[in-house]
């Protein structure tokens, strides 16, 4: 129904926000991962939304990027996962970390979410693993999302390629793709850095 809502942030609650657009205050449920990255009250923001209709309620859910919204919708497609559980998962583990957990079959990280045990976590991995591409968890694979999460900014195709080379080098050294990607994402990569420099900077996050 709505692709996104853009306007000033008016209020912040424990589990949601109000954004004003078209002289209407839109009450939007959001995960903790969104609450942690909001602008100051009064500042303009854009939030991508999913509209859910149930017999007893109509609810808007919001995310800071289309990729995170897609992750929410993918979770809703898992048997036994409703909006409340999906929001709980995305509050316990950031969307970009969830992608890594799914592709690396990290049951423990997903099971940290309230009400999500190992059995349900395994179901999430089984249902979604084939829908998460390896390149999606590499630096630069989610540019829009990276800008909102504090992940290392990839300012150009050159810096993106350098970061990917560093990930490949770490994998060649014996680290898993998820470990390598997490480490490189913590390095502020810019156009002036070589793959070797990024590799060296990443290693301190793996020791």
If you had to describe this structure to a student in words, what would you say it looks like?
It contains ten helices and five strands. It has a five-stranded mixed barrel. The longest helix is centred in the C-terminal third of the chain and has 16 residues. The radius of gyration is 18 Å and the shape is globular. About 7% of the residues have low confidence. The protein has 207 residues and is α+β, with helices and mostly antiparallel strands. Helix content is 43%, strand content 18%.
What is the overall pLDDT average? 84
Order of helices and strands: EEEHEEHHHHHHHHH
Strand content is: 15-25%
Rg over CA atoms, rounded to whole Å, is: 18 Å
Q: What's the helical proportion of residues?
A: 40-55%
Euclidean distance between termini CA atoms = 47 Å
Write down how many β-strands occur, each being a DSSP E stretch of 2 or more residues: 5
Low-pLDDT ranges: 142-155
Please summarize the sheet with the most strands.
5 strands, mixed, barrel
Q: Number of helical segments?
A: 10
- Overall 3D geometry? globular
Structural class: alpha+beta
Q: What topology, given as strand order, has the largest sheet?
A: 1-2-3-5-4
């Amino acid at each position: 129904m709505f692709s996104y809502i853009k306007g000033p942030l008016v209020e912040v609650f424990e589990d949601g926000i109000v954004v004003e657009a078209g002289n209407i205050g839109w009450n939007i449920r959001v995960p903790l991962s969104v609450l942690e990255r909001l602008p100051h009250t009064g500042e303009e923001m854009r939030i991508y939304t999913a509209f859910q209709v149930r017999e007893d309620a109509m609810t808007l859910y919001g995310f800071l990027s289309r990729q995170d919204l897609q992750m929410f919708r993918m979770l809703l497609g898992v048997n036994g996962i409703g909006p409340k559980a999906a929001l709980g998962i995305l509050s316990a583990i950031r969307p970009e970390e969830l992608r890594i957990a799914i592709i690396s079959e990290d049951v423990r990280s997903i099971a940290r979410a309230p009400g999500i045990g190992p059995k349900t976590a395994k179901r999430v991995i089984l249902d979604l693993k084939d829908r998460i591409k390896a390149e999606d968890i590499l630096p630069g694979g989610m540019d829009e999302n990276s800008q909102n999460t504090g992940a290392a900014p990839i300012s150009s195709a050159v810096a993106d390629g350098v970061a990917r080379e560093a990930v490949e080098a770490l994998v060649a050294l014996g680290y898993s793709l998820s470990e390598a990607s997490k480490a490189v994402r913590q390095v502020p990569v810019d156009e002036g850095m070589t793959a070797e420099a990024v590799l060296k900077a990443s290693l301190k996050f793996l020791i």
